[in-house]
Amino acid sequence: MSTLHTVTKPGQVMALCARAVVSGDSVLLIEDAVYELLSPPTGLNALPDSCSVYVMDIDARARGVEVSAPFEVIDYDRFVSLCVDNEKVLSWF
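The structure assignment produced for this chain is given below.
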């Protein structure tokens, strides 16, 4: 059973999310959570290797955050696809 975790804030919220993510899940960084890419990514480092991490393009651009591999930049259409493709969606805020 796969889950899409949407994270809206960096730091403690990301760390709590990382503790709940299991192999096969996906994480989407939206809003201020994109700042997680700028700081030492303690929460991101705790994710399983088989976890896909996505970054909302409009939020990264609005905050001046550059995204590089292994993270994938997505738009709203892809966000909707991820919601449909996963059995559950959990929001972390």
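Interim note for the steering committee: The two ends are 22 Å apart (CA to CA). Residues 12 and 43 are 8 Å apart (CA to CA).
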